[in-house]
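Researcher: Following up on the earlier apo prediction. This time include the ligand. It's zinc ion, with the SMILES given after the sequence.
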Amino acid sequence: MSSGIAIRGSRIGGSASSESERGDAAPRMRISYYCANGHETKPAFAVGADIPEEWECTKCGLPAGKDKQNTPARPHTQVYKSHLDYVKERRSADEAKQILGDALSMLRARRAAGEVIY
Ligand SMILES: [Zn+2]
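Model: Understood. Below is the ligand-bound prediction.
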């Protein structure tokens, strides 16, 4: 493994397998689950099967729920977020510029007053 280039195999007969499902397969339906990151996961369930309230998101692993507007809470322990991530969530880019500008002007004022010396 030095090149890092994967060689893709051809999918011989890939389309024929669907034929074997004809006849005895139970009718299925897809249920949409939504995680807190906005991903949609659509597992298929047999009609009449118990549909779980939550499903694990296949993209990020967060619990996903059926209500798009009310996704399950993030587990605190699994997802690491840096302080900067939290700041980005709370602040828009414009606000960040504003805050940075305020901080700089305050710093300049303090430096002019002799409180901060660089
Ligand atoms: Zn997700």
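Model: The chain has a mean pLDDT of 80.
Researcher: Noted. I'll compare it with the apo version next.
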